[in-house]
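Predict the holo structure. Ligand: alpha-D-glucopyranose.
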Amino acid sequence: MTEWWRESVVYQVYPRSFQDSNGDGIGDLEGIISRLDYLNDGTPRSLGVDAIWLSPTFPSPMADFGYDVADYCDVHPDFGTLATMDRLVTEAHRRGIRVLLDWVPNHTSDRHPWFLESRSSRDNPRRDWYVWRDPAPDGGPPNNWLSVFGGPAWTFDPATGQYYLHSFLKEQPDLNWRNPDVERAMLDTLRFWFERGIDGFRIDVIGRILKHPELPDNPENPEWRPGDRERFRQLSVYNHNYPDVFDAVKRIRRVFDAYEGRVAVGEVFGTPEEIARFYGEPGEPGLHLAFNFHFIHERGHEITPWQAPVLRRIIAAAEATVPAFSQPCYALNNHDRSRFVTRHNHDGLGAVRARAAALLLLGLRATPFVYYGEEIGMADVDISPERQQDPARFRSIGRDPERTPMQWDASPGRGFTTGEPWLPFGPLSPNVAEQDGDPGSLLSLYRDAIWTRKAQPSLHRGRLEELRCDDRVVGWVRRAEGSSPVLVAINTSSEPAIVSLPFDAGTVLICTERGRDGQTVRAALELPPLGAAWVQASA
Ligand code: GLC
């Protein structure tokens, strides 16, 4: 099916941390191949995901763990070779798993041959492939833009007497997408992978590829207070979601459309309206899917509270804005954000909320993304200063805690490695082995929810109708022609909650409190504290 992504669940693999096959403590592609059956072996004993997205696997000096790409058309030796990637694709496809890679169009590594040439002299033909500017009259940076990781977004290059722009680390110079040669070269890298059978890309910070052509100063943020992150001192109006980005996205989309069944999923930030704009218009589409991270942060870096009215607002806004020809795309976790279990653990009940969160994520009208380890309830791991790795830790909070190795079992190497892991492990529990045969485990809940979703058209392609509930509960009904409607209800309060059924009677398909599956309910459904359920209307 060409639009397979509409009914799919996607699993994000952070390759360094998923499975090591050679004992160097770093996960690799061979390791991922060996775990494909865990992800989907065609039976409900496996997770049942339809696609995987691999965070960057390209050659890179690893200043930002692969988000600094030195060659878009190869594989980093830590992960394997092009031949291993080809085999991964074949093995994944054999199991019905699509493979997405991570395309980083905004910037390259400062060791990418293009940048080495660009910085070699002012008249090098590739000088204009990056954003170079003269110093301000006082010798300082050309404008006030800040790097997302803190500090100025400009670094001075003494050899040629100019500054270059980097929205992230100084090792990640921004490409100049106003130069058509840059666009052409980058689009060719997509074609390279499509020819090799890659099914699509997650696109890194797509909202930054085009800036205001004159690079004016950003205005100060009047709401910024001392103690807030430095980067929020200013409103990034001229270097983030600048209108020209949306036209570039449509040109990028045409490359995807030249191949069958490929998908573009953008990492985007902004209001619901801005997110929606990335999808483009009918007849002139942009991204197939644009991430909505509002369950993590609705604005800035404030953690979204686990409260029914807030969740309802996020869902309603996405439903109202994403164009009818596509659908939302949500994630509760990724490699940049504190894990769900930790974010919502103020009262020690993060792991309980994670069960309801699974039914929320998988019960929405959307393409859900599950981050490795989420399905077993991995939490952030405290990393001692001498083991910290993330370069972002110097100017903002580091992201190591949510990137620790997958916990496959309780052995010393956690089933992840026979060597010393690149980041320390979390506590022995949770791990896959202990949850595998336990019907009450989070892993079993994820598996059941994913396979139930697959089996019920209402759940994987039905429309979503919001349900009126009191402020303790967020609920909706999924409906598709020819399939009984399914009620999804999430109780975010620590009291039991009652929801009136929108149909006469139904069967509990799945509930966070195990043992209730298959139960018949009439008129009303009682949800456990912080619990959730899917109930299918009786035919
Ligand atoms: C994205 C990635 C993040 C990376 C940054 C720069 O936000 O998810 O990990 O550091 O882009 O490429």
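The mean pLDDT is 97. The pocket of alpha-D-glucopyranose is lined by residues 64, 67, 104, 168, 204-205, 267, 335-336 (CB under 6 Å).
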